[in-house]
Amino acid sequence: MKRTLLLATLSLLFISFSSQAQLPGVSAVKKTLPKVTFGVKLGANFNELHTTNTAAIQQAYKPGIVGGLFLSVRKGKFGGRLEGLLNSSNYTYTYNAAQNGTYKNLYLEIPLLFEYRIVDRLWAQAGPQFSDILSVSANPNPRPSVDPKTYFKSEFSGVIGLEAKLPVHLMLGVRYILGVTNVNNEALTQVSGSWKNRTIQAYVGFRFF
Questions:
Q1: Is the same domain home to 11 and 80?
Q2: Which tens digits make up the pLDDT trace of 74-92?
Q3: Which of 29, 113, 165, 169 has the fewest Cβ atoms within 10 angstroms?
């Protein structure tokens, strides 16, 4: 008798849960979960090393490459974006009165951005970015006994941008990145004046889901 009552109770509970799963309110809860997106991006990087000592560093935007991975979490009109990027940047410096030299830098960039949907498929982005120097090639090296990587410091920047979400999992975006850290390690470069990065980026991305 007890076994029959138990089976009947379990059957009623199963039927009750099954009927609740069909209720509009239950399915609505599932629809309100944040949308998670993971993907890759690749683009062009135009970088200038802005300085107060224009006799030492040439003021011009030089082309490079940026690419990496991103993870977005979006819900309604709001979202967040975390990225891990590799960024190649080029600079021209004055080696002597008759010759210029070049720095070729490779950065690891980690932007953490707030996102807001302006209109359907178009998002505004803003937030901080941390950049770390992975390698520096100086040709010629102003001080051959010194590793040129140590000429530059890690930095923090501010990022603003726009991104368009396109069909077939594609996206297009542009950004302006304003460095706030003086990256000139004057003790090693022996060059006075602050160095701050200014960067324009344009990229295409692909969303896996």
A1: no
A2: 999 999 999 999 999 999 9
A3: 29
